[in-house]
Write a structure and sequence with these properties.
single chain; 106 residues; alpha+beta; five-stranded antiparallel β-sheet; 2 helices; 32% helix
C-alpha cells in the first residue's frame, strides 16, 4: 500500500532510522523507516550533492568542466522531480525489507 504523508494512517509517524545511498551521478537517496506495532513503512527522498548555488562559465571553460556542470544540473533536476512526484509518499513494506534496510543504516 502507498499513502501520502498526510494520510491519517501514517500522519505523525516518526521515521527514526535513516539509510543514505549516493549514486555515481551525485544523487543521494534517503530512506526513512517507520513502524507501528502491526506494520512497517518506508519513505524515500532525494537530494543532489555537491551542487553549487552559482556557476560561472566563460569562453575559457573547458568541455570537461562544462560536462561536469551539466551533470550536476541534471542530478539536481532529477532529484527535484523525484521529490515532487514521490517525496510525499509513504510505502508499506514487508517485515523482511524493513529488517534489511534497518540493518544497513549507517
Amino acid at each position: 500500500n502507498v499513502f501520502t504523508a498526510q494520510d491519517p494512517l501514517v500522519a505523525g509517524m516518526k521515521f527514526v532510522s535513516e539509510l543514505k545511498v549516493q549514486l555515481k551521478n551525485k544523487i543521494i537517496f534517503h530512506f526513512f523507516l517507520g513502524s507501528t506495532k502491526e506494520k512497517n513503512y518506508l519513505r524515500v527522498q532525494t537530494m543532489a550533492s555537491e551542487v553549487p548555488t552559482e556557476v560561472s562559465i566563460s569562453t575559457e571553460t573547458d568541455t570537461e568542466e562544462i560536462k561536469l556542470i551539466e551533470e550536476m544540473a541534471n542530478a539536481k533536476k532529477m532529484s527535484e522531480q523525484f521529490n515532487r512526484s514521490k517525496g510525499n509518499l509513504v510505502f508499506e513494506t514487508t517485515e523482511k525489507l524493513f529488517e534489511i534496510l534497518d540493518n544497513l543504516k549507517l
